[in-house]
Design a protein that fits this description.
The complex is a heterotrimer of chains A (121), B (367) and C (286). Chain A has helices at 20-37, 54-69, 81-90, 103-112, and strands spanning 2-6, 9-13, 41-45, 73-77, 99-100. With 121 residues, chain A is α/β, with parallel strands linked by helices. Chain A has a five-stranded mixed β-sheet with strand order 1-2-3-4-5. With 367 residues, chain B is of the alpha+beta class. In chain B, helix 1 (22-40) packs across helix 2 and helix 5 (129-140) packs across helix 7. Classes of the chains: A alpha/beta (121), B alpha+beta (367), C alpha/beta (286). The complex binds zinc ion. Chain C: It holds the Pfam family STAS.
Chain lengths: 121, 367, 286
Amino acid sequence: MSILRQGSTLIASVHTALDDSELERFRTDLVAQIGEHRSRGVIIDVAALDVIDSFAALTLRTIAEMARLRGARTVIVGIQPEVAFTMVRLGMGTGSIPTALDLEEGLALLTGGVDDGRRRP
Amino acid sequence: MTRPQSADGADATASAGPLQEADDLTELQAIVRRVVGARVGTHPAAEDLVQETLTRVLAAAPSVDPGLLEPYAIVTAKNLVASMWRDDARKRRNQHRAADLRVPESPEAQALLGEERSAMASALGRLDEHERALLIEHELRGTDTRTIAEEEGTTPGAVAARLSRSRARLRVEYVLGLESGDPPTDRCRPVLLALSAADRRRQRELDAATHLFSCDFCGRLSEPLLARGQRQDGVLRIPVAADPDIVKARGSARELAGRLGFSRTDLTVLATAVSELCRNIVRFAGSGELLVELLDEPRPGVRVTARDRGPGIADLEAAMRDGVSTYGGLGLGLPGVRRLMDEFAISSEQGAGTTVTITIWGKDPST
Amino acid sequence: MTQTTPGQHLLSELVAHLREHRTRLREEWAERIQQAHLLAAMTPQEMAAETTSVYDNYVEVLETGSVEALQHYARDLSERIIPRGVETHEVVGIVLLLRDVLARSLFEKYQRDFGLLNQVLDAYEPAANRIANTVAVSFVDERERVIRQQQDAIRELSTPVLPVRERLLILPIIGVLDSDRARQLTEQLLAGIRRHRARVVVIDITGAPDVDVAVANHLVQTVDASRLMGASVIITGLSPKIAQTLVTIGVDLSKMNTIGDLQGGLEEAERLLGYAVTKKEDATLS
Ligand SMILES: [Zn+2]
């Protein structure tokens, strides 16, 4: 995984499947950096994940919640079609965390400042 | 929006397979040991032969009538002993090859391949025209059942059932083609067909058990017919004891199922369910194991058995109730897994452990 | 039944032997491939390059016991040769030929010592069979994948997801839905969202006479899954009866974006996308 800073936004990308303890470390690292950089927005790119099970979904929700408490908005991007389908059948959503198709859309969503993705083309 | 209730979840049942009774197994094991012992004495491979036989019998158990298990175990043991002698004979032939380096090229494996191909061709020839056309259309040209059904004005289900019967017939004709000579009795072909089709009712009707005892020919052929479900490389046993095992296990299950041509969605669904089951093992039992099997009847499928010897689940009903989704309580993610899978069964005994069996059948993407 | 594990030194000796005679053995193998008329679709240069790679991979498997690199190479090779009509029996054939070329060179080397020869063969044969199996399985897998891809491409053509304008998809549902078809539509919609980078999806169910509980669940799952991919969903043409079914299974309709008819749905979609809406204010929006 990698965490990049772009202005006041942190972009965290997951590159391979993570096991539970790695997910926990990811959460700790990311939340620490949000505090450290006083980030306003966080994008988590999960395009490389071919499974988002209950624990991974819960971790994403926890990160978003902790980010919110530190004043940052979180957007999850890159959920694959099969993964999205499986998550809802499993009964695991991302709660109310905004989602976007990919990094580009995620950045647009954060900079647009509205949460339903509307903006001028 | 609120989470809708599951409408299509299968029933959670505490299941006991035909061979789960330890007594049955012990009895079978004793019989097999006698059969093997009578043939190979104290040969060092004897115990391996016994274990191998039992493995095959267990694998075939779902396809055969319970009354047939004993005869099947006996013929399988005989077959295995015979094939061990054949392997030894092959080694002796190799020594000969070593002495004479100018033995002509054609590797025997290729001769064998040729033999198999011609057996397949003649097996296809023995099917009636309709069956043959159907198999060729579906298996070789890759036409899906829905298209065939549309062309014939019938339903995909009916086509699938006919395909399954035709495949069973083809397998019988194929193994017959590898034998030289016709079956010795009129009963042989129907018995072999009932075995091949895993039709337990028909096996009983034909009294296949008695026939297997008395007919060496069918004894020899029953094993390859029933072994079809367990391709050699189609069973995977994965120990699960720590976090990294969860990721490894779901990757392996996905890879194995990938061989069946499952869609990406089905592969993801399977991997996710495996992930949930493995996590339960790691968190609640400490360690356990996962058994992943490829199935091919009535259509391609994968069965996963997750077993542990952990504390067990005190209240199964509560564990299966939807809506509990946090760890710590009863949230084992089991209702979600049940929703993901086509079949789901769980049995758990306090202090003894938990076994969850899940099955997913490949979806014909166009039906 | 179980193969005895060979001494590691035997395998290393074997590997050293195969490396030492690499050029000669590879050429002998290539010749036999030619004699057997296998891989006729390849040029001599390609043949030389591929046989060298296969040979090296083969020896590597014997040395390390890991088939991973070979598997990778075999997939890659398959991908290149399948479009040229190479058949499974050819691929299996060439690997078996290599197995036998190498086995014969072992016979030659060890023929004076039968005991040792047997040990070497015991070490070599299981590994060689495993290699043959790996290559064959990789090839068959790859071929199935190619066939599947072609089938997908054909299905794509009949996909019911309509891109009406940039970032906007319509999924008209027409006719009776069963669970299988509902599931298939969901999969196609989700794939369509990614392909067309859709931000808004209008699911029009005017043409669906009735939905049962299972299908209603699917509909809800489709909405949720689309949202996970970053697309908003508008449902149009919801009959009172279907609305009732949704309520029955516990769906909170006020949290679903439902609009009376398709026209209204499209207007709402354009508003969400930020396009100018020239029509008068629409009071039915949620
Ligand atoms: Zn018979």
